[in-house]
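User: I'm writing a tutorial on reading structure tokens. Could you give me a worked example: one chain, its sequence, then its tokens, then a sentence or two explaining what the tokens reveal?
Assistant: Sure. Here is the example chain.
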Amino acid sequence: MSSNTGSGVGLFDGVSGDLGTQADPGGNTFTGNTSTGLQLGLGSQVPVPAVGNTWNANVQGADAAGHYSPTLQKTGPANGTNYLINNASVVNL
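And here are its predicted structure tokens:
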């Protein structure tokens, strides 16, 4: 999910995903993508879990190691190199 042309992972209408929870952290790396690490365009506001991953450091609230506080929830729209939320989709980081 790193160093892709475009997005690392994209989840859109009709697709769900589990990229990590507090009980089972993802351990994925979403860095170096030319567009964004995670792109959401879901019709529902059910949160996509994406806890315990490594993101681009010091971007969109990530710390210097590329991590987020495990209780952080973001609702779209939002646009950046770590996550791009096209509508009112929700992600738990």
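What the tokens reveal: DSSP finds no helices and eight strands in the chain. Residues 1-93 form one domain.
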